[in-house]
Design a protein that fits this description.
mainly alpha; two-stranded antiparallel ribbon; 76% helix
Length: 187
Amino acid sequence: MKKLYKKLSKAAENFKKDKRVVKIAVLFIIIAALYLGRSLLFAAWVGNRPISRLSLIKELEKQGGKSVLDALIEKSLISQEAAKSRVNISNDAINLEIVNIEELVKKQGTSLEDALAARGQTKKDLFEQIKLQKTIEQILKDKIVLSDEELKVGNKDEIIQSKLQKEYGKWITELKEKAKILYFVKY
């Protein structure tokens, strides 16, 4: 009976030790998760006070939420129209445009990376902007017609861009009116 009691008490001690090890491991995992995920909870820490990520997001939404949401809606509408119209811009066409921009920026005495960084953008952002612009141009190309007078008077590229902007304004307004857009956030 004493042997059984000793075995049981030893098992109980081991269980208590194992429980402590598990608690320590869980505590370590929680601390590590908080440390690694701190940027999900906090935007900054000033002195002994945190600035939460949620308060940052709320402030950003106050400052530019409406325009950012409108831009995202427009991108979505353009993407949907491109799919309907089977407009697909090749990566080669986009990369060629990036090379042209790089050459222009070099002539101004800087690199593309530096110019993008100054605007808070990356090469991926530029790639997406060019793709969007070329998609719009492809969809609206039939609506841009130059008269002989316009060709004689001014810069062809400027006139095309001006007409493209006007057509884009009309076109995107029509798309927004026809689309079923449900807003869950009011600005």
